[in-house]
Amino acid sequence: MSLAKASIWTAGSTLIKIGVGLVVVKLLAVAFGPGGVGQAGNFRQLITVLGVLSGAGIFNGVTKYVAEYHQQPERLKPLLGTAVALVLGFSLLLAVVFVFAAAPIANALFGHEEYRDVIRALAFIQMGIAYANLFLAILKGYRDAVGNALAVIGGSLIGLVAYWLCFMLGGYAGALAGLALVPALVVLPAVVLMLRRTPLSLRALKPAWDNAIAGHLGKFTLMALMTAVTLPVAYIMMRNLLAEHYSWGDVGIWQGVSTISDAYLQFITASFTVYLLPTLSRLTDKSALSREIVRSLKFVLPVVAGVSFCVWLLRDVAIWLLFSREFIAMRELFAWQLVGDVMKVGAYVFGYLVIAKAALRFYLLTEVSQFLLLTGFAHWLIPMNGALGAAQAYMATYLVYFLLCCSVFIIYRRRA
Question: Which residues contact 31 (CB under 8 A, 6 or more apart)?
Answer without folding.
Answer: 167, 172, 175
